[in-house]
Amino acid sequence: MELNEEIESSEQQEKRARSAAQRRAEIRRRKLMLNSEDRMKKIVGFSDTDASTGGVVEPRLYLDLDRNEPWSSTASQKRLLPHVSEVAVSNTDPSERVDSDDAAGEEEASRGVRQRPRGELSGEEHSPSPRRGLQKYLCRFDDAMKLRGQLANEKAAQEESSADVEELDSFRFFRLAGSVGLAVFVRIFVCQYLSIFAPFLTLELGYMGLHKYFPKVEKKTKTTMLTAALLLSGIPAEVINRSMDTYRKMSDVFSDLCVYFFTFIMCHEVLLLFGSETV
Amino acid sequence: MATGFNWFLVLSAVFLCNLVKSLLPSISSCLSKLFQKDAEQETGMRMEIQNMRMELSTVNMMDEFARYARLERKINKMTDQLKTLVKSRTAQQAKMKWIVNIAFYILQAALMISLILKYYADPVTVVPSKWISPLEKLVAFPSGVTGGVGITCWLVVCNKVVAIGLHAVS
Q1: Using an 8 Å Cβ cutoff, are A258 and B161 in contact?
Q2: pLDDT band at A69 (very low <50, low <70, confident <90, very high)
Q3: DSSP state, A234?
Q4: pLDDT tens per residue, range B55-109
Q5: Mutate to test the interface with B, among A268, A273, A274 (most CBs of B within 10 A)
Q6: B7 near A CB under 8 A
Q7: Torsions phi, psi of B144, nearest 5?
Q8: Residue A221: left (phi > 0), alpha (psi -120 to 50), or beta?
Q9: Shortest Cα–Cα distance, B159 to chain A (Å)
Q10: Is any Cβ of chain A less than 8 angstroms from the Cβ of B131?
Q11: Among A112, A277, B73, B143, who pairs with B123 as Cys (CB 3.0-4.6 Å)?
């Protein structure tokens, strides 16, 4: 009987302990769920402010400081402030930084949050701007690291595949063949009457029209040092792509011109040679 | 005035330069193999590691733990030594590649400059000026001869054509 009572009491104790543990787990889970929403909002808010001009951060911080909410939401605010202050020290990912829990930093931040009066705007106006600049710098730093990684990967891929140059697609081959053919034709029949560059210009105009009838080859945009530097300097990727596209077209025209002129001169020299031999 | 085959001489020089440029990786790898020390040692170590691994696979860890552990330590030690050796060989190869590339570019620059200086005043070939109008001055630069094809224009054209040709062939 006594043994049974002992067993029952121990079981009851265990149940009580389990229920207390379960309760604590439940409380922790609820806090995490509430915090995750706030955290996501802040992450999305920060990424939005990077794209646009920074005016959004300031009111968000002011609003966060003014809110009088329970611990779970203020904890995320406290995490924001140590995140901003610690960001100069560490070089971790933004997602990791946002999620990092520094208890000491939280205490300092909470003291700082509570001590600041609500009506004091001027201090808030000045402090977000260095934070904004710091955020911007960190975003650029992250972009630079990503581009560096991308460059390293592309270089490794190029070394492995050893297929660095673009392949001659059908349209390019057609262009070159057309330039050679036209040069021979012009040397034999046309050059006595007009400049050799006039037929070449006509040919290029024809190519512009014929381009759409050939299968399009998707050219992979390679990340080079130049494109990485241009991206980091703030030029949009779309502008860079269009410029690279224009540059590619111009280089195609230049290649055609070189092949045309070379073939013309070679024809001329061969005809001179045969002409001198027959004479 | 231009002699008969100046254009051919410039074209040959450009072709040779581009050909050597395309062969640079194989040249640098040949030279690095020539100057490489401890090549046999590396292959010996690899064989030894392979043999030890085969021996390790035959040893039962439960029954002969001491022997297994001793063998594993030997393998790890030899693997570390091999890694150091491979690292130094790779560094030497990179250094050789760098030296070969620099030497080639210096020689190429010297050749181009000498060609430009030789044909500075003479065009490589002459054609009637109305054929190449309105760009006759640009084409004739720096010779200034009416209807002539200057060395710079011909070098640029030859470089481009040879590069396209070698790319198509390779």
Answers
A1: yes
A2: very low
A3: T
A4: 888 888 888 888 899 999 999 999 999 999 899 888 988 999 999 999 999 999 9
A5: A268
A6: yes
A7: 80, 0
A8: beta
A9: 9
A10: yes
A11: B143
Q: Which of B125, B131, B164 sits opposite A269 (nearest CB)?
A: B125
Q: Which residue intervals of chain B are DSSP H helices?
A: 6-34, 39-58, 65-118, 136-140, 151-169
Q: Which of residues 139-198 of A touch B (CB under 8 A)?
A: 165, 168, 176, 191, 195-197
Q: How confident is the model over A90-102, as a mean pLDDT?
A: 46
User: What are the b/e assignments for B9-23, b being 16+ CB within 10 Å?
Assistant: ebbebbbebbeebee
Who wins on pLDDT, B3 or A109? B3
Give the pLDDT confidence score for residue B77 in this predicted structure.
93
Nearest to B132 among A176, A196, A262 (CB): A196
What is the distance between the alpha carbons of residues A64 and A68, in angstroms, rounded to a whole number?
9
Is the whole model's pTM more than 0.95, yes or no? Answer: no
Span B19-41, average pLDDT? 84
For B147, the 3-state DSSP assignment is coil
How far apart CA A229 and CA A245 sit, in angstroms, is: 18
pLDDT greater at residue A132 or residue A113: A132
Q: Which of A155, A160, A256, A262 to mutate to test the interface with B (most CBs of B within 10 A)?
A: A262
